[in-house]
Amino acid sequence: MNSISDRVAIVTGGSGGIGGLAARRLASEGMDVVVHYGSNREGADEVVAAIEAAGGRAIAASADIAEEAEAKALFDLAEKEFGGVDVLVHTAGIMPLSPLEQLDLEVFDRVQRVNVRGTFVVDQLAAQRIRRGGAIINFSTSITRLQYPAYAAYAASKGAVEAITLILARELRGRDITVNAIAPGPTATPLFFEGKSQELIDQIAGGNPFQRLGTPEDIAEAVAFLAGPARWVNGQNIFVNGGAA
User: Cα 215 from chain centroid?
Assistant: First the structure.
């Protein structure tokens, strides 16, 4: 098993709020990081620049993670630039909201393609190529338990992510690779704030004992734990939501 400071991580969705902080947090532990982005090149470049300014090594790369050839290129790049892959942090996903009754089926299909097929594709590649002692960290959501209206398509896709995660953990028996999912609660990112009134934001923030939204830093701490010292945590869906009911 490589020490945490010798590890190489791929962070999908690394240009986003949670993914970007996760990439920076892993880099602060000494990991080399491939910062994946879908369309937000500027955001990914900012994350890479912040990592490099702090003395770390990182590179940005674009891919449609639901396309096998493009996702494979991320792993190829990590091996070419940094020598291998030890950690996959899969935060990439989309979250269009609509009541089920009104949701366009094309939107539903797009959510499942990105969130479910995308997870399956990158997890399959990770299972084939991550080195012993590594970690696969998928992202679910606390919405699967909180059951807010308008989240049906998103929650359905993340329920599938949980199933993929828990089964893969058992399929990798004997490989010394942990596979877990993080299920954040409402987190203060641009994606969360989009389209919400201040009244609704305050209502959601009051739904946990701390009476605040989570932060990307809160989630990044859980990522760092699973990516490094948490070798006896495996096959789990970990709710990181401040105790939201």
Answer: 14
pLDDT < 70 positions in the chain: 1-5
Is residue 154 among the annotated active site residues?
yes
The matching CATH number, chosen from 3.30.70.920, 3.40.50.720, 3.40.50.1100, 3.40.640.10, for 4-234 is 3.40.50.720
Number of H helices, E strands in the chain: 10, 7
Give the pLDDT score at 190. Answer: 85
Helix (H) or strand (E) holding 143: helix 143-146
- Which tokens in the block code for residue 239? 């709710």
| Residues sharing a CB contact under 8 Å with residue 128, sequence separation 6 or more, in sequence order | none
- Residue tagged active-site, from 37, 148, 151, 154: 154
Q: Per the confidence metrics, is the pTM higher than 0.85?
A: yes
